[in-house]
Amino acid sequence: MRKPQRLVTGVAALALIGGATAVAAVPAQAATSAAVGCQFPTGTTGTTGTNAHGLPEFSGGSTFTKPSTSSTTCHDLNVWKGKSGVSYEGWLYYGNGNWGACTAGYVKYTGSPIVLCTDVLAGTVMGVTSSSGAGQSITIED
């Protein structure tokens, strides 16, 4: 009789653990299904130059960090709002003082959002320069 009782107790314990797991999984699934929307931080444009090691660098403007959640729906660096007629260029920081301009180069803003960098990895530090110089007010979408 003891063996069946242990078996029943073991099954009940597994059912309880399984039930607790299912209950705990529901909030996690809900959080995963609600993708983090695009972020719209504001800041200013900076300038580019060469650092002490001869590498291109971005300075003097706002830096933005790509959201680090894997469920972020925005994978690019876009200028959402800027000054019409001004061209903007995206910059990404690769570490050790190494900045690089995005392959799109300078893109003219005409009142609609423009893509400066594509497939930006989560956690990447970014900056924007403009054809009108540093200090230009912008809103990015990342």
Question: Can you summarize this structure?
Answer:
The chain is α+β, with helices and mostly antiparallel strands and 142 residues long.
Task: Supply the key terms.
alpha+beta, globular, 4-stranded antiparallel beta sheet, 142 residues, 5-stranded antiparallel beta sheet, 23% helix, single chain
Molecular structure report:
With 142 residues, the chain is an alpha+beta fold. It folds into two domains: 1-34; 42-141. It is built from one helix and eleven strands; from the N terminus they run αβββββββββββ. A hairpin with a 2-residue loop joins β6 and β7.
What share of the residues does DSSP label as strand, in percent? Answer: 25-35%
Helix content: 10-25%
Secondary-structure-derived class: alpha+beta
Mean pLDDT: 79
**SSE pattern:** HEEEEEEEEEEE
Parts with pLDDT < 50 across at least 5 consecutive residues? 1-33
The quaternary structure here is single chain
Distance between the termini: 64 Å
Rg of Cα set: 24 Å
- Give the biggest sheet: 5 strands, antiparallel
Any idea how many domains? 2
Give the helix tally.
1
Signal peptide: 1-30
Keywords: Signal
Organism: Streptacidiphilus cavernicola
Protein name: Secreted protein
